[in-house]
Amino acid sequence: MLNIAVCVKQVPDTEARLSVAADKTRIEEQGISFILNPYDEHAVEEAIRLKEKQGGTVTVFCLGPARAEEAIRTALAMGADKAVHLADAAFGGGDEGTAAAALEKAIAGKSFDLVLAGRLAIDDASGQVGARLAEKLGWPHVTAVTRLAVEGREAVANREIDGGSQVVAVTLPAVITAQRGLNQPRYPKIPDIMKARRKEVAKVTPADLGLSGGEVGGAGAKGKVAGLAPAPGRSAGKVIAGEPADAARKVVGLLRDEAKVI
Amino acid sequence: MTTGPATRQIYWDIDLHWLIYIFMLLPLVLLGYGMWRRYRMWRQGGPDQRFGDWWERTKTVIWESGLQRRVLRDLFPGVTHAFIFWGMLALLGGTIVVGVQADAGLRIYHGWFYLAVSLILDVFGALSLLAVVVAAFRRYILRPARLDNRPDDAYFLAILFVTLLSGFVLEGLRIAARPDPWGAYNPVGVAFSLPFSGRPEATLELWYAVLWWAHMAMAFTFMAYLPFSKALHIFVAPVNQFFRRLGPAGALSKLNFEDETIETFGVSEVTQFSWKQLMDSDACTRCGRCQDNCPAHLSGKALSPKSLVQGVKAQMEWTFTHRGVASQDDTGPKLIGDRVPEEALWACTTCRACEESCPVFVEHVEKTVGMRRHLVMMESQFPPELQLTFKNLETNFNPWALGWAGRADWRKELAGAAEPFEVPLLSEHPNPEYLLWVGCSGSFDARNRKVTLALAKLLHRAGVDFAILGTEEKCCGDSARRLGNEYLYQTLAQENVEVLKGYGVQRIVTACPHCLNTLKNEYPQFGGEFEVVHHSQLLESLVATGRLKVAPITPKVTYHDSCFLGRYNRVYEEPRRLVLAASGARPVEMPRHGASAFCCGGGGGRVWMEESQGQRINVMRAKEAMGTGTSRVVTACPFCLTMLEDGVKLSGAATPAKVCDVAELLQEAVQ
Ligand SMILES: Cc1cc2nc3c(=O)[nH]c(=O)nc-3n(C[C@H](O)[C@H](O)[C@H](O)COP(=O)(O)OP(=O)(O)OC[C@H]3O[C@@H](n4cnc5c(N)ncnc54)[C@H](O)[C@@H]3O)c2cc1C
Ligand code: SF4
Ligand code: SF4
């Protein structure tokens, strides 16, 4: 029996055309699709597989605005049992610290054996929340895991490191963050999608977690996003025509003289 | 010699002939019981609305059973079958006439009517007998690959042969014993009498009596054996033709996701098919025509539409005989897996070549998609590459991982045109003459964007007032639906219908036959009734009415029929007329064209899947196209364009043909 908590975040689709909002600290949300953060999908999948093997429950935790419920439903359709949504407006505008602090309050003391999270949220990409959460819970953590085996009270996790892999063993409860390759997330079955619509999503406020307004969101954040700037647009590529041998010579010439990279 | 009206003595030499009516009872009961049993097997299936349009349905039976239309399309086996059928039909008619004459007290069998019937029976009977021999020769000596031989096939031919032969021997014996003054009207009978001539009459009479009863016994055996054998098709084929799907050929059935009490979707057990889908399998004669036209089968994939239908039949029978057995689910054979291999289901391009060639109107595609629906929606089991396709459709409303915001970006390329013009969005320009439904390929695929540009320029030049939906357009859902993801399809369909209705759209033109089929034939299931035409149809009318002036320029070309344009929507002629206008000649046809065209390999969502088994379908078709000796292959479908262009490249042809859409061809020729 394993009681597993999974932290999921809703992020803009990888293909969404992003633009910076007028205040230059946020992206424009109008006209983009949001998805369940891909790393979190791996985390959800791993949690469900563990549950299917060993029994237990999977609870999803998500801090995010109302639209994030869609990502929660995706996780529920994949097979998570219930969800806690930290949706209150007061949570908004925070940083990694306030996100982790709020998640810790929601997760601590509920007899979870394991917390799974993504290695990174593909939007803000700080890769901190999992680790910070573990620190706050006082649990061991392993990040960017590509293989996970849980036996009794021990979890053995593989991490890809440059040129090899590292195997880390921790005692439960622990926090594990998922790297791509951990598993192949499932495509939900329709009856599960329908069941997911009826599953419970508890909405919690800072007060429910025993947090004051000043400890969460923008008010509690230690840092502020001072500015966002789009990446400079890529200039059009060059097509070099001609016989392969000639073309290759030209490419080498351009790389040396124009791009000065060789 | 007699001089009375022409006739013959019926039941000559036979005493107590009325006993046949008593002996007939048992075979009749068996026949009735056998048919009732089949009926109950079909009724294991769910409901299916196949009623109404009675005259239309009757016409199908007249053409297809009576006149053997589709049977005769395949000449050699077709003619053979037609003669057996017409012969047996004539003999059955003759037998009824005789019965009426002898036992209903109606004196009709004399004079010219007698002579005419005699002659017809003689000739048709002989042709029938000959055809049975030819059929046996084909089946057992020529052994075409599409036939699999079971003992039942031999019994059937043997019974027909013996019954027909004994009939003629009987006639011969009669004529030998009592020379017939009307022998000229029984030429075959006279021929059969020759070996017996000169024998003592008593011997002939004895032989006749014995053989007559044997002949009757044979006929009764046939009757009793019919519902338990392939002869079943004699009854079921016409009924199946009668209940065929009318209306759009390839509109798939709609599933109900609103009703929360429904918890299973698709087909994993035969009881989830409709009664018609099950009846189909009893109409099937294992003739193999479908298999012979199936691109998946011909390219060496695991699929044979014939085996698929037979698999359904075997499972239908198994389920029927095991009904009420508690452990049925766990131990028995499974429809998907044991009867129909999973990989066969994924190999289908939903091209409908099988359905179009089936003489008894079996509907294969609905079955395949039904089982795919189960795999995708209930089991989440499908070729892994499809997961990405589904996800892309969900988040970006196109099958590629391309942001939906770029859907109308193709218009930027118009700015660089010689005579730049703007294609307005429907939101800026409501109520145009036509909505141009661009489709995913036309919007995102680099090659097909060129087709969209050509089409937009042609429409602009002809002064057609049109607009596009831009980012409000989503994938029509064709691939999702045919891949069995009905849930995703319905999400897309409902959203599209809502947008289209919101703008009050009435007329739509599209270059994609998959969009065409979906919008025109399947969106009415969601309350979307629009007039939808293919770009080839609209362009053809623009050329015909002189709104587009064309001077033929290109050399001879060949034209590849898209399955979804041709077999699905019966548009064969307009693209050919465009080819004529643009190239000065009708296309040089490939061996397989029109209704029997060979698929490009991209339909049914196959375009999103790997093709690892057997030959590549697109290469086979590209070679066939280049075999016409033309240097240009004209298509009218974005998938065909992509598949054939790849096919030409992969074929390794020394002088690869150029592949282009019919709109591009026309654009070259427009003045
Ligand atoms: C009303 C409201 C509005 C918000 N608006 C935004 C917004 O516009 N943009 C934005 O990026 N964030 C928003 N957030 C969420 C919050 O500010 C971020 O979660 C936080 O900045 C985390 O940083 P990161 O994305 O770099 O996480 P990382 O550290 O890169 O994430 C690593 C992993 O931590 C977990 N995780 C991260 N964030 C969350 C979360 N929110 N809930 C559950 N698990 C999480 C996931 O498993 C993730 O894979 C909003 C929250 C609320 C309540
Ligand atoms: S639809 Fe086409 S590919 Fe599918 S079984 Fe029929 S002939 Fe074969
Ligand atoms: S399904 Fe039709 S075409 Fe195919 S074998 Fe049966 S009867 Fe013949």
Terminal Cα separation of chain B, in Å? 85 Å
The CATH superfamily of the largest domain in chain A appears as HUPs
Q: Helix count of chain A? A: 7
Strand order of the largest sheet of chain A: 9-8-7-10-6-1-4-5-11
Query: What is the average per-residue confidence, as pLDDT of chain B, rounded to a whole number?
Result: 93
Molecular shape of chain B = elongated
Shape of chain A: globular
Q: What percent of residues of chain B are in strands?
A: under 5%
Q: Mind telling me the C-alpha Rg of chain B?
A: 30 Å
Mean pLDDT of chain A: 93
CATH topology of the largest domain in chain A: Rossmann fold
Question: What is the strand arrangement across the widest sheet of chain B?
Answer: 2-1-3-4
What is the total tally of β strands of chain A? 11
How many domains would you count in the coordinates of chain A?
Answer: 2
Helix content of chain B: 40-55%
* Largest sheet properties of chain A: 9 strands, mixed
Characterize the main sheet of chain B: 4 strands, parallel
SSE pattern of chain A: EEEHEHEHEHEEEEHEHH
- How many domains of chain B? The number is 3
| Assigned CATH class of the largest domain in chain A | Alpha Beta
- The stretches of 5 or more residues of chain B where confidence is low (pLDDT under 50) are none
